[in-house]
Design goal:
The complex is a heterodimer of chains A (about 300) and B (about 270). With about 300 residues, chain A is an all-alpha fold. Chain A has twelve helices and four strands. With about 270 residues, chain B is mostly helical. In chain B, α4 packs antiparallel against α8, α6 runs antiparallel to α9 and α7 runs antiparallel to α8. Classes of the chains: A mainly alpha (about 300), B mainly alpha (about 270). Chains A and B meet through α2, β1, α4 and α5 of A and α2, α3 and α4 of B.
């Protein structure tokens, strides 16, 4: 364990992140990067971007609260130190996504009311289930909920958003790339550290499986809510991408993600691919730590 | 990372690249951000893995001095573990997102301190640093840690900021600065980097409580009571540090006085 944890030290984190892929960035993107005018001047795309960004902030606020709470619960110094880097990563994510809201024109004094207005209630419930475990002092369930379920979801959602933003919004795509790199590290820690703890405490399995099932249910309910409202903005985004490509004398290109053509797939298809991808990730990652994946019921 | 762009919010006549040129809200947003933290630490951590320049030759310490240094570093680890656990618990208590983000940077700082001290213990030949820390910990610093975490667990933000960012940080600032003057070169470099962080943490504590007490002057009495209670533990911890550092009797009261004066200078309780 000691050798594996040496890869998660503060020293390594400093070299990989601030002195690595975050070098020469401001709020996670290249200095001078900005949201594209085609988005800022388009009412439908702007509102959709604000709503999406609020979900990211809500998720990252939960991750910040959970990871900081887990520092105290960690059974050894090396895990505490890793979770300290994760706490700072999550705070950075809160900061950069909050800054994106400001870049989208949300006034600073309207930040909290905007978050309250757009935060999906199912995502809030998802977060509450995790934070209850942390508040109860349950380190193993907390790390599984945080570093495998929450981070696994965030990782996949960020990948999808990055794929859809790459051409139209390179600034946001770069911001997401940095967070994806962070999340990959967090998921890796969860898998590596928790496997041995689960085998030491097999009695925890049932409770953790129930937590995963419940969190998965609220995650799917969040996806269902978000995608059911996104038809107009997806179509508008495609129209703008086509117009831009025509102006540049080319075609909008193939944005493929996990087999789905993001330029033509229906909203339902994209939601299905996202849900299948996240749940597939859960299944394989949980299997690696000795937890049996539980299928959630499908939200109405 | 590049310099942050401060110009737009700067007041006329002040250097627009300096945080002090910002209005109060923009100032707090700036100095409590990840970017500000990184720019602050970059200067003194760049090229110093584990807190010191790798080419620095390690002095040969005589066995007695080495033993003392191990005990001292073990007790520093208790203090840093207290700060790490305290700061991480305080992230959720923070009253706003700027403070929450600042506390997250402090969590990483405290974890780095713990890491560099543990690493130094390893270099000094300690094979199981966690066990050694438990063996050599002075009761006073352990008791201080329990008291601090009780305040955090009780959700008492103001008292926790006072105990951690004022009292513990001042204690560490005073002892580390003193020790850096007499330590071997590598330990001295490590301590200099840690002291630079403590200065930032102290600034946050002073600023946060200073503003709070302006609006809630009656809370001062409660903080004075907490100080009265914790001072005996701080003095006990200092007593332990005297012996570990091998201070002569004549020097001992000076460190305690330095601590009390440092707290006094913050002006929070006067």
């Amino acid at each position: 364990m000691a050798d594996f944890l040496s890869q998660y030290s503060i020293q390594r984190w400093l070299e990989m992140c601030p002195q690595g892929y975050l070098e020469d960035t401001v709020y996670g993107h290249a200095e001078g990067g900005s949201e594209p005018p085609e988005l800022l001047d388009n009412e439908v795309l702007l509102e959709s971007s604000i709503a999406t960004t609020v979900q990211l902030i809500a998720g990252e606020r939960c991750a910040l609260a959970a990871s900081s709470g887990l520092v105290n619960l960690a059974p050894d110094f090396a895990s505490k130190r890793f979770l300290a880097t994760q706490t700072l990563d999550e705070a950075r994510h809160v900061e950069i996504f909050t800054q994106r809201l400001f870049d989208l024109g949300v006034a600073k004094e309207d930040l909290e009311s905007t978050v309250d207005r757009y935060a999906n209630p199912n995502l809030v419930r998802f977060a509450e289930i995790l934070l209850e475990k942390v508040s109860d002092g349950d380190f193993i369930a907390g790390v599984v909920g945080q570093n495998i379920v929450l981070e696994g979801m965030a990782f996949t959602v960020f990948e999808l958003l990055e794929a859809t933003s790459r051409d139209l919004n390179p600034k946001f795509a770069q911001t997401l790339s940095g967070t994806i790199a962070d999340e990959r590290r967090h998921v890796g820690f969860g898998e590596n550290r928790i496997g041995s703890l689960i085998s030491e405490h097999p009695e925890k399995r049932g409770e953790i499986e129930r937590m995963q099932q419940e969190m998965s249910y609220y995650m799917l309910a969040t996806f269902a809510d978000v995608f059911s409202d996104s038809g107009e903005s997806v179509e508008e985004g495609r129209r703008v991408a086509n117009d831009l490509a025509a102006e540049r004398g080319g075609d909008p290109g193939d944005a493929a993600w996990h087999g789905a053509d993001l330029g033509s797939a229906s909203v339902e298809e994209i939601e299905g691919v996202l849900a299948d991808t996240v749940l597939g990730e859960f299944r394989s990652r949980l299997g690696r730590i000795g937890i049996e994946y539980q299928s959630p019921s499908v939200p109405a | 990372m590049t310099s942050t762009q401060l110009g737009a919010a700067g007041s006329e006549g002040l250097d627009s690249e300096e945080p002090h040129g910002l209005d109060e809200t923009a100032f707090y947003r700036e100095v409590r951000s990840f970017s500000f933290w990184f720019e602050a630490v970059e200067g003194y951590l760049e090229g110093r893995p584990h807190g010191y320049v790798p080419s620095t030759p390690d002095e040969e310490l005589d066995p007695r001095r080495r033993e003392r240094l191990i005990t001292t570093l073990c007790n520093y680890c208790v203090g840093e573990a207290a700060a790490l656990e305290g700061a991480s618990g305080m992230v959720r208590l923070a009253p706003n997102h700027n403070s929450r983000i600042f506390m997250a940077t402090q969590v990483a700082d405290e974890a780095r301190h713990l890491e560099v001290f543990l690493h130094r213990l390893g270099e000094l030949g300690v094979t199981d640093p966690e066990l050694e820390v438990r063996r050599r910990a002075h009761p006073s610093i352990v008791a201080f840690k329990h008291q601090l975490l009780e305040l955090v667990d009780a959700g008492d933000w103001d008292a926790a900021v006072f105990a951690l960012n004022v009292l513990l940080e001042t204690l560490e600032f005073t002892v580390f600065r003193h020790h850096a003057r007499t330590a071997d070169v590598i330990t001295s470099q490590i301590l200099d980097g840690v002291v630079s962080d403590e200065r930032r943490h102290l600034g946050f504590g002073e600023n946060t409580l200073g503003h709070h007490l302006v609006g809630h002057p009656t809370d001062r009495t409660r903080l004075i009571e907490i100080k009265g209670h914790l001072d005996s533990l701080v003095m006990g911890a200092l007593d332990g540090a005297y012996g570990d550092l091998g201070l002569h009797r004549g020097e001992r009261p000076k460190l305690g006085r330095d601590y009390l004066q440092a707290v006094e200078r913050l002006g929070i309780l006067s």
